[in-house]
Design goal:
Chain B: Pfam families: MreC (PF04085). The complex is a heterodimer. Chain A is mainly alpha-helical. In chain A, about 75% of the residues lie in helices and about 0% in strands. Chain B is an alpha+beta fold. Chain B starts with a helix and ends with a strand. Classes of the chains: A mainly alpha, B alpha+beta. The interface between A and B is large, with 34 and 39 residues.
Chain lengths: ~140, ~250
């Protein structure tokens, strides 16, 4: 859990200080994939912290993150998140929608694919006990 | 799980509404010093790294620049002496002519603490910063304050498509620049009959609340079609947003 918290903090810092890219959303998607329904509090809190640090209207990011989480949890069978290709397509679409709404630009595809692949294989390695028992896993 | 989701979503919506109407502004305050401190140290600390790729690419140019710099330092010392004499002469002439002092603005210095879509600076309403104030780096236009809290402010940058700035060129051609969220900005609303050439320099025209004669950038590409009412051009801004550590907010006295 500490690793996840650190990853979220790192993503928030990168997004609000250095580079216009939805790093936090990427980590949120991974969190939902790993923790499933238990990730909702993480999602909400990460959204609030991102708004607070980024000087945006509080709650905006939480709403978006929660809706994405709900879609992932509700339609995980239809999307078939066990397939890496499906996860990558979902991530790319979501990241671009978010980028367009919040930053009015499309996200860098190369960064999206690289980070998504990295996290997809990194997180289950960190949380094998969690990833093993959940419905949503890669 | 459904109950948990809806309660969190309700909380988020409630939070959004309350913050939209600025009812929980005070809730942000306790976290502000910590956020400003962390962001400032991170941004200022890592900003040196941003120069590294440029240093490597331009190594030869830099060596020449160092030589030139030494030569210029000597010339600079001579110039300083001359300036001292000229300033004294200028002051006495002003007195003689009774000319008014140049219209001035109060410059409020600010440390840059983050650059994402917006630039974030470490001063806020308690320093007298208000939404709409222009932000400059020397005589180069950076952007305009879009939001403030007690200790922080967001600057909407020249490169943002939410900002329209009326400009005028060194040839007197008028137009408006609008960001494209990239490195270049778009110059539009230039009449077909007005002269527009590559490398023309554009300044703020002083309309719509922007101070006049602030540097915007130079024309790098012209897009003209005789059928259209207006000409368009791409302008490369002079402001190097990623490398700026300190800016000034202009307050009209």
């Amino acid at each position: 859990m500490k690793t996840l918290a650190l990853l979220l903090i790192l993503a928030i810092i990168l997004e609000t200080v250095f580079y216009v890219y939805p790093f936090t959303l990427l980590v949120i998607i991974m969190t939902v994939l790993i923790l499933g329904g238990n990730s909702l509090y993480w999602v909400f809190i990460a959204g609030v912290i991102l708004d607070l640090v980024g000087l945006r209207i509080m709650g905006g990011n939480s709403i978006f993150f929660l809706l994405i989480s709900a879609i992932m949890l509700r339609y995980n069978r239809r999307f078939n998140f066990n397939n890496v290709i499906n996860v990558m397509i979902f991530i790319t679409v979501t990241i671009n929608v978010y980028s367009f709404i919040f930053y009015q630009r499309m996200a860098d595809l190369f960064i999206t694919l690289f980070l998504a692949l990295l996290l997809l294989y990194l997180l289950p390695w960190y949380f094998p006990y969690l990833a093993g028992g959940k419905k949503l896993k890669v | 799980m459904r109950k948990k989701f809806f309660s969190l979503l309700t909380a988020a919506v409630l939070l959004y509404i309350l913050d939209y109407f600025r009812l929980i502004e005070s809730a942000r305050l306790p976290a502000e010093p910590l956020i400003v401190g962390v962001k400032k140290s991170l941004y200022q600390g890592f900003s040196q790294l941003k120069i590294l790729p440029k240093l490597v690419i331009n190594y030869d140019t830099l060596v020449e620049a160092v030589k030139k710099s030494r030569q210029l330092t000597n010339e600079n010392n001579e110039m300083r002496m001359k300036i001292g004499e000229l300033v004294a002469e200028n002051e006495s002439l002003r007195k003689q002519l009774g000319a008014p002092l140049p219209a001035s603005f109060r410059f409020i210095p600010a440390d840059v603490i983050a650059v994402s879509r917006y630039m974030e600076i470490a001063i806020g309403s308690q320093n007298g910063v208000k939404a709409g104030m222009p932000v400059v780096d020397g005589s180069t236009f950076i952007g305009r304050i879009s939001k403030t809290t007690d200790r922080r402010s967001l600057v909407i940058l020249l490169t943002d498509n939410d900002l329209n700035v009326p400009v005028i060129s060194n040839r007197g051609t008028r137009g408006k620049v609008n960001g494209q969220l990239g490195k270049l900005v778009l110059l539009n609303q230039v009449l077909q009959r007005d002269p527009l050439f590559l490398d023309d320099i554009f300044f703020t025209s002083g309309e719509e609340g922007f101070p006049p004669k602030l540097l915007i950038g130079k024309v790098v590409h012209i897009d003209t079609d005789d059928v259209d009412v207006y000409k368009q051009a791409q302008i490369a801004p002079y402001a190097e947003i990623d490398l700026i550590k300190k800016v000034f907010v202009l307050e009209e006295r």
